[in-house]
Design a protein that fits this description.
two-stranded antiparallel ribbon; binds zinc ion; mainly beta
């Protein structure tokens, strides 16, 4: 389970369909959707 901070719900949520990607700076991040509102949720450090 991968958690990220949802800016709309203002709390940590469990990401839906998390995928790992890289920022332009080469930092690993995990990206997914908020299960509550569908907003894209990101987390630094990638999937663990
Ligand atoms: Zn949300």
């Amino acid at each position: 389970m991968v958690q990220g901070y949802c800016v709309k719900d203002k709390k940590m949520v469990e990401m839906k369909n998390p995928v790992e990607s890289l920022t332009k700076k080469g930092t690993k991040i995990a990206k997914g959707k908020c299960p509550n509102c569908g907003t894209t949720v990101c987390r630094m450090g990638g999937l663990k």
